[in-house]
Each structure stands twice: as C-alpha cells, then as structure tokens.
Amino acid sequence: MCPITAVNGEEVIKSNGHLTDLDGNDIADEHAKDYYAVLDGQHRLKAYLELGLPLEDLVVIEPLNKKIAIALLIAEMNICTKTWKGSDYMAAPAMAIKETNAAFDFAMELQRRNFPLSTISLWACGNNKLKAKDLVASLKTREMPQCLQEADGWCAKSRKWFEAASEKFTAKFLAKKYLISFIQDGYNVAEDAAAYTLEIEEKLKKLAQWQADKIQNARKTSTQTQEQVILDLLREHL
C-alpha cells in the first residue's frame, strides 16, 4: 500500500489553509499544532478506521520536498494518483494566489456550487479558456490564469445574468452550458452589446416560473436532442 503523506497542521495554517477532521468538522486554527494534516491518503486512513484495522500498519511520511507549497503538493498528488474533475482544481489556487479579482471570486462561488470547470469558464470568463492545467500552473506563479485576469468586464455582466437566472432556474440547470451559451451567442452578434446586456437581464427577471420550469425540465423528442429542445425554448421565451 502507498504511504500516507502528512504535514504538521501548523504548516497548513501558514499556507492560508484550514484544518477539518475526517468527518469534515472544523478544527480551530490555534489547535492546528496538535494535528497532522493528511495531504494524500485520506480515503485509506478512513477505511482503516472504519474496518478497525491496526493503524500501526500504515506507513506515514512527510513530503520529500518541503520547499513546495502545500497547495501545489495537494494538486500534483491528485493529478498523479487520481482523476479530479476540472472544478476541483479551483480550490488549491485559492490558497496560493496573491491577489484575486471579481471574476476569480465568481468562479470560486460557482465551484462551491459544484459547477463543472467548462461552465465556470463560460460564466466567469465568457470563453472556454479556463483549464485545469492553468490553475495548477497558477500555484507556482501565484498569479491568476490570464483569462480570469482579463475577465472583470465580462464578469460584471454575467454575474447580473446569473443572479437574475438563479431566481427562476435551479443550480443544477445553470451548471449546464445551455443558458450561458445561449446568452453568449446572442451577446457576440448583438449590434449594441450594452443594450443586449440589459435586455437579457430584464427578460430573465420577467420570466414566469412556469416558463423557466418548461425550459429546465425539457426532454429530448424523437426528432430533437434535449439541447435542441432547450435552445428552441430559450429562443421562444427569452
């Protein structure tokens, strides 16, 4: 069995992190020195505890390179040992990046709501440029990915759309690309982008709940995919 990698809890606090126990309960920062934080091997440790296996059989090591930031260690270990979903890569940079902006904060908000990275990129950046590899790279540079650095203008618009849409649509529906892709396509061809921005926000606010439900609960037909049905309904009601 692979060793479990752990560091003293104080090192996590110094890296702007926070400790929880294996059940997700918070550990006060002032008590961090009394704990070791498992960077890799949480599931193995939990399995041993649940099965009542002897913990002395586990091999626990500290990171070999102590100069690497803890957030970077966590990210790189998970790249090598298991597949993260794209949005998981948002969490580690939040500990390391020196300065953030509204677009990054919006992206983090969507990540906490379990949005996939591809949809986060559309909402926060207005494009498909936000990639997991760029988030890992930002752990080393301590700078936000370029697409987020340049996204404040787009984010100012998209956050208003998102807030208006959240009043009518479920987070599960908004986490899919249907609505934001529809809005973005219209924005890209609008003769007056500022007018379109306000128009979509107002239409979302005025959308009746039955209309929103009809859109988000749409199903495929014998002749159309679910996406095609939803896009037709978006065109009809927005």
Structure write-up:
The protein has 238 residues and is mainly alpha-helical. It has 2 domains: 1-67, no CATH class; 85-237, no CATH class. Helices cover 56% and strands 7% of the residues. It has a 3-stranded mixed β-sheet with strand order 4-1-5. Strands 2-3 form a two-stranded antiparallel ribbon. A hairpin with a 5-residue loop joins strand 2 and strand 3 (26-27).
What separation lies between the terminal Cα atoms? 56 Å
Query: What does the oligomeric state look like here?
Result: single chain
- H/E series, N to C? EHEEEHEHHHHHHHHHHHH
- Give the tally of β-strands: 5
Beta fraction of the residues?
5-15%
Q: Share of helix among residues?
A: 55-70%
Please indicate the count of domains. 2
Task: Kindly name the structural category.
Answer: mainly alpha
- Chain-averaged pLDDT: 87
Q: What is the makeup of the main sheet?
A: 3 strands, mixed
Give the CA-based shape.
elongated
CA radius of gyration is 22 Å
Question: Which consecutive residue ranges, at least 5 long each, have pLDDT under 50?
Answer: none
Strand order of the largest sheet: 4-1-5
Q: How many DSSP H or I helices?
A: 14
Quick rundown:
This is ParB/Sulfiredoxin domain-containing protein. With 238 residues, the chain is mainly α.
Write the topology of this structure:
Blueprint: E1 4-8, H1 9-14, E2 19-20, E3 26-27, E4 36-40, H2 42-51, E5 60-61, H3 70-81, H4 91-96, H5 102-112, H6 117-125, H7 132-141, H8 146-149, H9 152-166, H10 171-174, H11 178-189, H12 193-206, H13 209-216, H14 226-237
Parallel strand pairs: 1-5
Antiparallel strand pairs: 1-4, 2-3
